Amino acid sequence: PMRLSQARRTLRSSADRPAGRIRSGDAARIDAFIVSGFSPQAVEFEPLDVVAKRMRVLAEQSGGLDITEWEEKGDRIRFAGLTRKGRVPLKGIIGLDGGKLLGFQIEPDRRVRGPDAPVWPAAVDTLDAAVAAIEAEIDWRARDGRFSGAVLVARRGEVILDQAWGLARRGPDLPNTPDTLFHTASTTKMLTAAAIGQLIDRGELSLDTSVADAVPGLASAPGARDATIRDLLGHRVSYGDFLGLPTYQALEREDLRATDLLPLIADRAPKAAPPDRISYSNANYLVLAAAIEAATGDSYYDYVRDHILQPTGMADTDFGTPEVRPTRAAIGWIKDYDAHPLGDGEWQANDGRLPYHGGPAGGTWMSARDMGRFLQALTQGRLVEPATLAAMMKDSRTGARTFRHGLGFMLNEANGRGYFGHDGGGGNAGVSTAAFTSLDGEWSVVVLSNYSSGGDDLGKTIIDFFLTALPPE
Predict the structure, then answer these.
(1) Tell me: the pLDDT tens digits for 147-187?
(2) CA 302 to centroid of chain Cα atoms
């Protein structure tokens, strides 16, 4: 079994060796470790018998793990290594509670590139060479099972790459195309942020309007007087989640208004994030949608259709229905990493993993071309006044990885040049997305994937590449 203190000692006392080692054990030892090594709170995330089963499968298939990376940060440990059987690269996260485990995730480490991978980052000096390098990289990722989806790249509004890879459906196989609709996960939050920006432009809301004043249904709710539109957009406070609640799933229907769902979170007091940090919250965007409905009298869905989708020509965007994916939508493809932790299992549809009905927090179905239209309209000031958008970018806090979170948008830079947008998906949901545009409007990159990983990473990889490899036009 994995003993954290033992692994730490091994690594810290082995400066002359490149790796520590976590060894596998038999079922009895693993069961004993589950009892002694896991926090009592672990059962809130996963039954311990399920955890034990996963560990036994992992131990048998991997033969143990030789650790090559180990990073402790707060209550999380990130690690990577090679299996003793087959030398398969894996990476994972361990969650801690008072020195004991809350849980762990292990998956194939896609950072490791095979011998057939193209050289990356490529050295280029022309636009044509840069596009060819990106195509070669995506071709390889698709062949290697790392990517399936659609990619669009535009420069100053001119599309220079518009292609798709992989399969939307299997048996019979149907390839993804540039017209395929993809589940956009949390990338949808940008639509909600843009709608709020429009209401700020019209003077119907401000960033400092309190939740109590913006949402009549929460006027007397705990903490609503102290939380603001700014706090909700930027995850400065958190109302938690609502998408996984059985009560939400029972209520979900096509004609639902965001205001109808407020009882799900009305008894919650928004919790403040730590200083200069965020507490990411889907329910924040449910409250923002209710503010849009209160300010306009329209449902969230009608407002977004009339004021964002139609003016920008986004005809290939669909909120969908609770029952089924839209006709041209890609199925999300996942693997059972519990039964096949080394990633060698069969592809399965992601039925039941995510709601089919999109909403203010995520899940709108969209083509890459439509997402490109949205980014272009945003940077050209056709949706939100430039001053308002700039204010939403200026107020930022540290988020995940290298990103900061502004108000409704994620922020980053490459080669000293800033860009913004959003990504979404991840976990093992069969969705990973990214949509970014440079602050100067020169580059826009959209990656929509029907795999659990690859889309968010690829989106950042592409825009970093163009901002770094080519000088500003």
Answers:
(1) 999 999 999 999 999 999 999 999 999 999 999 999 999 99
(2) 25
